[in-house]
Every structure is written in C-alpha cells, then in structure tokens.
Automatic annotation (TrEMBL):
<keyword id="KW-0963">Cytoplasm</keyword>
<comment type="similarity">
    <text>Belongs to the PhoU family.</text>
</comment>
<dbReference type="InterPro" id="IPR026022">
    <property type="entry name" value="PhoU_dom"/>
</dbReference>
<dbReference type="InterPro" id="IPR028366">
    <property type="entry name" value="PhoU"/>
</dbReference>
<dbReference type="GO" id="GO:0045936">
    <property type="term" value="P:negative regulation of phosphate metabolic process"/>
</dbReference>
<protein>
    <recommendedName>
        <fullName>Phosphate-specific transport system accessory protein PhoU</fullName>
    </recommendedName>
</protein>
<dbReference type="InterPro" id="IPR038078">
    <property type="entry name" value="PhoU-like_sf"/>
</dbReference>
<feature type="domain" description="PhoU">
    <location>
        <begin position="16"/>
        <end position="103"/>
    </location>
</feature>
<dbReference type="GO" id="GO:0030643">
    <property type="term" value="P:intracellular phosphate ion homeostasis"/>
</dbReference>
<dbReference type="GO" id="GO:0006817">
    <property type="term" value="P:phosphate ion transport"/>
</dbReference>
<comment type="function">
    <text>Plays a role in the regulation of phosphate uptake.</text>
</comment>
<dbReference type="Pfam" id="PF01895">
    <property type="entry name" value="PhoU"/>
</dbReference>
<comment type="subunit">
    <text>Homodimer.</text>
</comment>
<dbReference type="GO" id="GO:0005737">
    <property type="term" value="C:cytoplasm"/>
</dbReference>
<keyword id="KW-0592">Phosphate transport</keyword>
<feature type="domain" description="PhoU">
    <location>
        <begin position="119"/>
        <end position="204"/>
    </location>
</feature>
<keyword id="KW-0813">Transport</keyword>
Length: 233
C-alpha cells in the first residue's frame, strides 16, 4: 500500500472515531437533559448538532478524494467506504439526539411518570450500545462489534414494552395524550439510535472480514407494533 494512502486512511479512521465520541456525547446528553429536565443542556445540544453535520460532510469528501487519488482495493477500499457509511450513521444518531432534546424542552414541565423513568433506562442502554460499538471500531474489535449486533433485540424489547404501556396509558387517561405522544416519539428515536449502533456493528464486520452479515438481526417482529405515525390517538 502507498504510504500516503495508509496515512490518510489512518487519519480518516481517527476522524470517524472523534465523530463517534461526539455522537456518543450527544446521545448521553439527550438522555440526561430529559432525565434532569435541563433545558439549558437541551438547547446547547441542539446547537452542537451542526458539528456532526460538518464532520460527516468532511469525512465523505475526504474518503471520496482518497478513493479517486489512490484507487485502493481490498481492505483499504473497504476502510474508505466504511468511513463514509459510519459517518452517515453517526450523523443520524446526532439528529435523533437533537430530536430528543427538542421534545425534552416541551416535557420540562410535565409531571414525572414511571414510564418516563423507563425511557431513561432505555436511553442509558442505547447510549452504552453506541459507546461500545464506537470503541470496537477504534480498536478494530470484531468480537465486540458482533456482540452489539447480537444484542440488538434488547433495545427492541424495551421499545415494544414502552410502546404498549404508553398506548394503554393514553387510552385510559386522555389528559396524558400530549405527554404520551412526545414520549412515544422519544422512545422511537432511541430505538432508531439502537438500530444505527447495530448498523455500525455490521459495517465493522464488513470492513474487517470483507463479508456481509447475512443472518437476520435478532429482533421481535415489526408486525407486532405498528409505526407511531399510524396511531390514531
């Protein structure tokens, strides 16, 4: 491999890792501002989201330029392509964290509920999954990434349980509909962050092995729970 290409690939991977650290912080802070009803933290988080957008665009530009300049093949090509895919998933995690922060502003004065605490627990789980998979990428730990992939259903189980509890709560008490709707969307955003963490695990697997993970993700059936957008509240 060309020494310049190798150096640029290392720099690209380091930038993806830095972006992963920022995405981790955004998700963790989104959970914190919801739990603590910290509107100041929420507003700062929303403002910081542009940094992830800029990093994603920069990583994509650099990866494309590297491919065009050096024409890498094999694992080097996979590393460049994976950097772009990882950046895209991390940017989406940031967008979802921003969405949670926005809804936490609306919920700052809402009455606390046991379901709110369950959402906080789900948030901690999702945050730890993202942290684990970003760390796996940083050290090319195939087994650790695969472990995140295999535990994807844990986040889905949390979401399914929260979905049903919130729906039942809103059906029993119409006064909870507004708060419940925001919590439903927050739970869905967390579930999607979990999916992006699983996507990242799959990308790491492909980068290291050159093979796609062809097995079906360990999930509950999506037929069990309708999309939030389809709810008639």
């Amino acid at each position: 491999m060309d020494a310049s290409c190798a150096d640029e690939l290392r720099q690209l991977a380091a930038e993806v890792t830095r972006m992963g650290g920022l995405a981790e912080a955004q998700v963790a802070d989104a959970v914190d501002c919801l739990a603590k009803r910290d509107t100041g933290m929420a507003r700062q988080l929303i403002e910081r989201d542009v940094r992830l957008d800029a990093m994603q665009a920069d990583i994509e530009r650099r990866a494309i330029a590297l491919i065009a300049s050096y024409g890498p093949s094999g694992v080097d090509l996979r590393r460049a392509v994976s950097a772009m895919k990882l950046a895209m998933n991390l940017e989406r995690c940031g967008d979802l964290a921003r969405n949670i922060a926005k809804r936490s502003l609306v919920l700052a004065d809402a009455d606390p509920t046991t379901i709110m605490r369950a959402i906080e627990r789900m948030g901690r789980l999702v945050s730890s999954r993202l942290n684990e998979v970003v760390d796996a990428y940083a050290v090319s730990d195939f087994d650790r990434a695969l472990g995140v992939w295999r535990r994807d259903e844990e986040v889905d189980d949390h979401y399914e349980s929260l979905f049903r509890e919130l729906l039942e709560l809103m059906r029993q008490d119409s006064a909870t509909v507004q708060t419940g709707a925001h919590l439903l969307f927050i739970a869905k955003n967390l579930e999607r962050i979990g999916d992006h963490a699983t996507n990242i695990a799959e990308i790491i697997h492909f980068e290291i092995t050159g093979e796609e993970l062809t097995a079906q993700r360990p999930k509950w059936s999506s037929l069990d729970t309708p999309p939030i957008e389809d709810l008639a509240l």
